[in-house]
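anyone seen this seq b4? input:
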Amino acid sequence: MSNWEKLSASINRGNKKRKKDISERRSEEPLSVTPITDNIVALDCEMVGVGTGRESALARCTIIDGKGNVLYDHFVRPQTRITDFRTKYSGVRSKDLRTDETHSFTQCQKEVAQLLSGKLLIGHALENDLRVLLLSHPRAMMRDTAHFPLLMRKNARGKLKPRKLRDLAQQFLSITIQSSEHSSVEDANAALRLYFRFQAQWEAWILYGRQPNSHHISSPTSSKRRKKKAHVLPPSCSLTTTETQK
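predicted toks r here
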């Protein structure tokens, strides 16, 4: 091989390496995502205690669209006897469940399922809300502010843990929520605004980072039980209070 051929080969190897380095750097850069509000809904539910009081049942459900307009907001009569209204946190009182505007659980479940169908669902600790609704939603179509890394905290062992929606709203939105009784409309709006605040990073993280699994989130089923239908849930609408903090 002549000296010219050796030099040419060396230059080509260098060019290939530089192109590879540039490609790798570009793949690490966040994707620029245009904010969208279409086809988006945010969900929040308020719950009361049933049974021993440590189990939860749906008592109010709110859904707003991507612009913050209320699509659904009704108190809901639980299917079992209430033993703790948890008014301090839920904002639900006995009189709220005795009006003409109060929906039955079946009516609420049907209307909510229709509103969530095919939508990108925003919320905080959505597994709790979907559980009391006895509904499921595709994981790839969910954006949960309790489980997005930039909105989580590290414990003493360095493991990421969910934060309270109240603290996230104060830090990133400079608004105060849940100072007394909770409002599902207020909480749904806070979760929606947090998503839009981090929408570009969030969608880039999904595209370049950990792609969500294709299975659905529904009941508190383990990975072993998830082999069953995604929408299979316990026969009652209650759950034990091991919920992610709201």
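The helical segments are 3-28, 87-90, 105-116, 126-133, 165-173, 184-197, 199-208. Residues 88 and 180 are 7 Å apart (CA to CA). kinda curious what u guys think
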